[in-house]
Every structure is written in C-alpha cells, then in structure tokens.
Design a protein that fits this description.
The protein is mainly beta. The chain has two helices and 17 strands. It has one domain.
C-alpha cells in the first residue's frame, strides 16, 4: 500500500486543568486509577500520562461535561515507540457523533492519521474493545480523517445508542488486529471518503493488537456529541456497554 504523505498544520489550543467539586467517592476512585484524570473541555493526553493502544490501557477521559478536543502525540524511538492512542469516551448524542482531524472541523495532524471507533465492554484490566468504524481519508482532496455514526461501505454499521465507546488514532497504515492476527478493517479503509465497518468474514472483532507501527506526529482531535465518562467506580458498576447495529445488505 502506498502512503499518501499527507500532513496538516497543528492548532495551538491547549487543555487547561481546572478545579471542580466532585463527590468524595469519585476522588477515591480517581486516586486509584492512574489513567483517569479530570480536565476541561479540551483534553491533553500529555497531562495525564500516555494513552495506551488497547481497551485495558486506554486513557479514560473523565470530565463533568462536553469534550471538545483531544490533543496528543504518537512517537517513534529505539525502544519501540508509541504508535497508537486510545481513549474511552461517552457518546451522549449518537446522531451528532464525530471525531475529526480536519482543519475545517477544528482538528489537525502532522502526519497521515487513521481513526477508529470501538464498542467497549468491561473496565480497566477486564476491558475489551470490538471494532465498529474506521477512516483514513475523510474525502478526496482533503487531508485528514473523520469518524461519523454511519458507515458508508454497505456494511450497515451504525452507532445508534448513547453509551461508552473507545476511539483510537494511529498513523498510516497501522490497523487494529484480532487474536488471530487478522486486520479488523479491510483495505477499503484506505480509499478516500470511505467510512468503513469491520472487514467481511471475521468471526472475532475483538482488538488484540496492531498490524504495523505507522506514521507518528502530533494531533488534535475535534469531537462532537461526546462527553466525559462518570467516576471509575460508577463505570465498574454500570459496565461499558455501547451498542452497535450491524446490518448486512
């Protein structure tokens, strides 16, 4: 597969951590969960440690309300690098769900990005992510990736229910794989304008790893229809239960 060598200029918006009043139960749970932190509508990965590449190591975005942006970076080094970032979020408005690196939307990336959405079950070490949606190039002639609630590849995948999900970003051409080493998304994800569901013929949609390292750089995700998740203790009680409606034509 040939890289498109796409890039866009990063925005300079920064996350500002502010004090808020929260229940004491939340503070106790927060103190025991290193990957969860409280921040304003603009989330900065670097302020809370690294966002991992699996459901159990994903950075849980905990805020009191709407999350507008997520800023982070993917890096390469001799020790292996950080080639994918995953975040657990709450989709409050499925019809307006959007994750974008497009400058027109208020996002950016200094590399050719790929975006993914996953259904999530469980929490913490017992969390599992299941492939839903993926995109590489939002549309022909436009640099950047964008996720929406409905796949356009005839897979019939729709994000229709409010709930807990995970979003992930990688660089071209890094795709998630299942326990059998199969790519969870087919090569059609590389086509301009293709917002795709999982690859045909898979019996296992669970995320187990990634097929390659991919490009690296800084990114700013612009979000819509998304809020922070409740206190970790509440999540453990409720379970992470985003729903997917998958129809085959």
């Amino acid at each position: 597969m040939k890289s498109n060598n796409l890039s866009i200029q990063p925005s300079i918006n920064r996350c500002v951590v502010s004090a808020v009043v929260v229940p004491s139960l939340f503070l106790i749970a927060l103190a025991t969960t290193s990957s969860v932190a409280l921040c304003g509508p603009d989330w900065d990965e670097g302020a809370h440690g690294d966002a991992g590449s699996t459901a159990s190591t994903a950075q849980v975005i905990t805020t009191a309300g709407t999350v507008n942006t997520v800023r982070g970076s993917l890096t390469a080094n001799l020790l292996g690098g950080d080639y994918q970032d995953m975040y657990v979020i709450y989709v409050a408005s499925p019809t307006s769900f959007s994750v974008s690196t497009l400058t027109a939307d208020g996002g950016s990336a200094t590399f050719n990005p790929m975006l993914y959405a996953f259904r999530v079950e469980g929490f913490g070490d017992t969390a599992h992510a299941f492939a839903m949606l993926g995109n590489n190039i939002a549309m022909a002639g436009v640099v950047g990736a964008r996720l929406g609630p409905i796949a356009n590849d005839n897979s019939g995948v729709r994000l229709t229910e409010a709930g807990y999900y995970a979003i992930a970003i990688s660089g071209f051409s890094s795709r998630p794989t299942n326990a059998f080493g199969e790519s969870l998304f087919g090569s059609n994800i590389f086509g301009a304008g293709n917002l795709v569901g999982p690859a045909d013929g898979l019996n296992n949609l669970g995320l187990a790893g990634w097929d390659s390292d991919g490009q690296t750089g800084e990114y700013l995700l612009h979000l819509s229809g998304i809020t922070g998740v409740p206190a970790p203790g509440a999540i453990a009680l409720l379970g992470l239960a985003g729903l997917i409606s998958r129809r085959r034509r």
